[in-house]
Amino acid sequence: MSKPLGEYLKEEKEAEEAAARPPPSAHATSPEIDSPGSDPSMKLSDFTADDDSVSFGLQRLKEIAEAAEKKKKAEKNKKKKEKKKMKKLQAEKDVGSSKTEGATPSDEDDSTKSEEGSGTCEKSESAELAKKDPLSPEKCTGTSATPPSTGKAKKSVKLKLQRPDEAPKQTTSLLMSYQSMRSPELSALIVESSKESSAAMVEEAWERLKKSYVYYRGKPVGTLAAMDPTAEALNYNQVFVRDFVPTGLACLMKNPAEPEIVKNFLLKTLHLQGREKMVDNFTLGEGVLPASFKVSNDSDRAKETIVADFGGSAIGRVAPVDSGFWWIILLWSYNRCTRDHALVELPAVQNGMKLILNLCLSDGFDTFPTLLCADGCSMIDRRMGIYGYPIEIQALFYFALRCAMQLLKPERGGKEFLERIDKRIIALSFHIQKYYWLDFTHLNNIYRYKTEEYSHTAVNKFNVMPESIPDWVFDFMPLRGGYLIGNVSPARMDFRWFLVGNCIAILSCLATPDQAIAIMDLIEERWEDLIGEMPLKIAYPALEGHEWRTITGYDPKNTRWSYHNGGSWPTLLWLLAAASIKTGRPQIAKRAIELAEQRLSKDGWPEYYDGKTGRYIGKQARRYQTWSISGYLIAKKMIENPSNLLLVSLEEDKKIAKPRLARSATV
Ligand code: GLC
């Protein structure tokens, strides 16, 4: 009997950990963009080392498989010999009525069956179940089919039966390695064919991306959110600022880079910022950037016009707080890639940045350095209980502040902004690192919190009631790992996991190096929950029942394990890839990319997937969603050439760490 896959994976992981890191390789001097010399804290050798450890891991897996194969053959021979001996004995004794002890014919049959290939034995049974219930998961290990939204995901790796239409998209996943390890030739063939299909997928993705370009006066200025001919366009025929970020990055990471569309996009959206923005009779802040814009053709007047949405048409009428931050971050990436300082130094660009920052840095009644937001003000643009101080916005705010520090010129009031930014990033990083961080120890502390404490000596500063800790978090929290929770405000900690905030915190160094590593540990420890069958869960866990009713307001689009409420979004692949490369663990990104490659193109690049493990194409998901395409492309680009990470990642600022220590002494 062969070993369970879980054991192979464990051994493979142990082998990876034991592997010695090879010296820095050619990646470290990649000519594609800046030499890492300008970024002393970036250790590109780490990436290459772990790259090697991945192939080392596969090699080790193969070795284990071969050893298992040998052992099995030897056992089989032994059995055969024993059987012969028994037969001989039987004949000699001439006992016709009684059967020999040991292997009965049926036992023998069973053992041959299981030797012939794991998974086949229960295939018919499971296929039968699947036939009865189209939503039943085709699991090899289970005897009963469970619906996607119930039951806790088992931590053991299950062998998944292949759906007939999945067959051509084989990948080099560990699962595949296991299935094919009986024959090294077969294994090599699969690796080869997966390389080919992945190359074809990349080619298709670039083609589709190109088709989604939106032109204004003959120049590309952005990309459509989706190009699904079978679904109602709604606002998916617009250029979304946040959606364009992975597309812009793809154009910058391309070899050679195609920065023109990024520049046009930055300038066009800046131009839109200058418009007067009103919702009913209320005028929005000058710095607000649109959530999206649309180029309309007035054929009668042979004129193109741009209509922008600043939240006035959006569902819920909320302005996109994230747009301005993404705009500054993309400007920084553009500048880093092209060294086109002329664009950054344009007075209009400098002014645009100041207007965005002014919205967030102005004095008010705040006692926290975090930014107070309405529900639905970011990628999660419907009511999902993220109002208050959501981690996604705080992390983007921090990232944008740090980018602005590098982009702002001291002239024309810039110096004053730089001083304000400096103070804010110190306070913000202190606040997030201290109050948003949750690991096993912190959870235990909160669980034992005293309440109703008064004065600056209070430990439970926000008066959080331990009874408000949801049950699921005690099971979810591994001994190894941790994460930044969703929200912190008076008497309220939203313990949900949000991927964007955590990955952005890693890329911007808002998370400390130890926290960054712990976040990646958590992703590995909770792989089934956070990645499942299709990367990646936008939030975990889903709101269900009473919570869903009260928090989402009965939102039929955000039912449990769907859309923003625990749905899986392929576009997030790039954030995971970047974070895992930055923390020196590209194998995490590779594993997730391989999973996505099994279905993404075949399913038509959906916007999101539904279900606890992300198995089902989202109920209302658009197909040919542009940021699903570009998210995949840049994840691939960064894995291929880890120096591409430098376009989306900041190095640690040692200055920020100092005051943090001084202040923590008073807590
Ligand atoms: C949905 C998403 C939003 C995205 C938009 C366009 O509204 O929630 O994050 O920007 O679609 O793709």
Automatic annotation (TrEMBL):
GO terms for molecular function: endo-alpha-N-acetylgalactosaminidase activity; sucrose alpha-glucosidase activity. Its EC number is 3.2.1.26. Keywords: Carbohydrate metabolism, Glycosidase, Hydrolase. Residues 70-88, 152-161 have a biased composition (Basic residues). InterPro entries: 6-hairpin_glycosidase_sf, 6hp_glycosidase-like_sf, Glyco_hydro_100. GO terms for biological process: sucrose catabolic process. Residues 1-49, 68-172 are annotated as: Disordered. It is an enzyme of class 3 (hydrolase). Invertase that cleaves sucrose into glucose and fructose. Belongs to the glycosyl hydrolase 100 family. This is Alkaline/neutral invertase.
